[in-house]
Amino acid sequence: MHQLRQDRTTKEWVIIAAERSKRPHSFRNVSKPPSEKPLYQIDCPFCGGNEHLTPHETLAYRLGGAPDSRGWWVRAVPNKFPALSPEGSLERKEEKGFFRMMDGVGVHEVVIETPAHNQLLSLMDDKQVEEILVAYRERYNAIREDPRIKLIIIFKNYGEAAGTSLEHPHSQLVGTPIVPSNIRRKLEEAARYYDDHGCCVYCDVIEEELSAENRIVMDTEKFVVFQPFASRFPFETWIVPKTHQASFGLISMQDSKTFAKVLKETLFKLYSKLNDPDYNFVIHTSPIRDEMEDYYHWHLQIIPRLTTPAGFEMGSGIHINVAFPEETADFLKKE
Ligand SMILES: [Zn+2]
Ligand SMILES: [Zn+2]
């Protein structure tokens, strides 16, 4: 029997297609050859030594040395081809009283995760991943100072199927001048749940997933890693902090280091069990204005790109997942 399952955080339905369902090991990428990238590539703007190929840095962790020089281990720079740019105002205009537009104002930065071209986030040492997460936190808190920015999205595209354009390890932050409607729906659902139940839906999800046990990938003192009941994609994995906190920007320095360790370990599990799959991850966090509100709870979602959503998904918004999260979580958890 197929099953329709509902995500309580969004009210989105998914179909878990039992008859089409694939065994977890069949998602393993068997044809991928071992990565043979060079340590340094002469035309790569993110490689150490090529600092002149990027716009001026907004952050760098290095011991001494001038800005935009070599010697850093994590560096952030404005995106050379930004989706949104800092110039402009929030004024909305209407053409013929109907077509609405505004300046494409915003911030788009890249966090270069390492000067080495051929490293992978899933294989870096814990200390390096910590530094990357500390950089996310620092840039998040700097970008939020711009009063035009309403929401900051931190994400990573890894591999061609995930839409990456440069293979050098990097992640991105985009600050938008609006709260887009699908995020608004997620926030509204969390607010409605909070009104109805007097508690946070994500805190309840953690509690229920922990008590169900069979979709948990990792349970640590500060974070829970699981594949949600209504997973939209095979191996969709969430990392949720146990501390109720609306915004990633409020994470303590200590917790961001713990978060790094858990993220790295989760990515490593996916890497080793699925043979280096392409993936996206996104940190979902409250709009700047609602950071001190109680209804929301920041979290990270990892979506390995193992299947391609098609017409039905586009037309209905209902995802068809061909794997049971209970089985994939179990597969991932095994040593
Ligand atoms: Zn490079
Ligand atoms: Zn919560």
Question: Can you tell me about this structure?
Answer:
It is built from 6 helices and 15 strands. It is α+β, with helices and mostly antiparallel strands. The radius of gyration is 20 Å and the shape is globular. The model has no long low-confidence stretch (mean pLDDT about 95).
Task: Supply the key terms.
335 residues; alpha+beta; 10-stranded antiparallel beta sheet; 6 helices; 15 strands; 25% helix; 23% strand; globular; binds zinc ion
Please provide the count of β strands: 15
Count of helical stretches: 6
- What percentage of the residues does DSSP assign to strands (E)? 15-25%
Radius of gyration: 20 Å
The ligands bound in this entry are: zinc ion
Task: Show unreliable segments.
Answer: none
How would you briefly describe this protein structure?
It contains six helices and 15 strands. It is an alpha+beta fold and 335 residues long. It has a ten-stranded antiparallel β-sheet with strand order 3-4-7-9-8-13-14-12-11-10, with helices on both faces.
Blueprint (SSEs and pairs):
Elements: E1 3-6, E2 13-16, E3 59-62, E4 72-78, E5 92-95, E6 99-102, E7 107-112, H1 126-143, E8 151-158, E9 170-176, H2 181-197, H3 201-212, E10 216-219, E11 223-226, E12 237-241, H4 253-274, E13 279-284, E14 299-304, H5 311-316, E15 319-321, H6 325-333
Parallel strand pairs: 2-15
Antiparallel strand pairs: 1-2, 3-4, 4-7, 5-6, 7-9, 8-9, 8-13, 10-11, 11-12, 12-14, 13-14
Residues 200, 202-203, 244, 297 line the site of one zinc ion.
